[in-house]
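Throughout our pipeline, every protein is held as a single compact record rather than as scattered files. The record that follows is passed on verbatim for readers who wish to inspect the format:
___
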Amino acid sequence: MKLAYVGHDRVLRVHETQMPDAEDLVLSVPGLRCTWPAWSPDGEAVAFSGYSSEEALGVYVTGYESPGPGLIYSNEVGTGEIASATPHYCSWSPDGARLAFVAQTGRGLTLFVWDKGDTGDPRIAQDGGPMYFAWSPDSDEIYTHSFLDHYLVDATEEGTPQQFPGRGTQYMSPAWGRESDGIAFFLDGEHGKQRLLVINLRDSSARMLTEFYGIAAVAWRPGYAQLGMVKETIRNTGFYSGLWLVDYETREEVQLSDDPALAFYWSPDGSKVAYVTRSDGAEGSLCFGVVEVESGDKVYLADFVPSQEQLIHFMFFDQYAQSHPVWSADSNSMLVCGQLGYQLIRSELPPSESNRVILLDAAGGEAPRDIAGGFVGCWSPI
């Protein structure tokens, strides 16, 4: 298994976890300052944002075994990052044949689609922001939540996105599971409530699973017709009030944890779910709680303070979980960037040079492994 990370020197590197003593492979070129790597599903390419020596900002793709096409998109003159410490957002299609990314343009935020190996400019798919999206399982379509509205985008060619009825004001990213699962998203309901719906484009069916007050986020459980959901944020904290499992067929909701949750991530095999919560009795540090779904057994992993980029990952986890895995492919390890340790009082995040790339044993039996100095990274999906 391997992971991509960016060190303090802004160089993009790959670490092979099964060869811990080997020198990490450098994927970027001198003079390019990198951030936010994203692996293709086959583990053969990495997309990332980069600043050239002329301070020009662009999206790059490089091969793992051999050099890739390099720069695939240059930001328009006078445009910058889509958010603080976030130049772009990149997400590969499930088949690895296309890369979708969001960049700032003169029109605001724009969703682009690039065909792997294409030497032409990426296609403009949709303008509008905030922009959140999910790939279809067959890699031909993208479902977007743009500002308050929902659209279906054809990823294979330029065209006008198809708008769907209903508005969503209290969530961020939709979730598209297996072909049989459909698209899960939230719509504003009556009397200020929010509704969790699933639509399936194959049979044009729509199903409401639950409704409640407050904001929420959702993600399909891999291999199951079930969804993980966090909802009802605790006032002025940014934490949700707990973590639930929602069954698509029965609509039954089972609470997996009542700990405050900042984010959650399914293991690739669907047997476990990890959520980010406060360290015991502390305000300044975080930890992962890991729940074995069938047994309900729970363990807490090491305390840490996240890097700025890691905190962004947590805050927008329903989007980043689709593109930047924190779980290893074998569902045994987790990746976090920041500084280990318990911190009672909330303070500023660690300075960049003190952040580390750290592996955590999901079972909690082994001590954390310090891989290298770095502030952002993700696992290869294979």
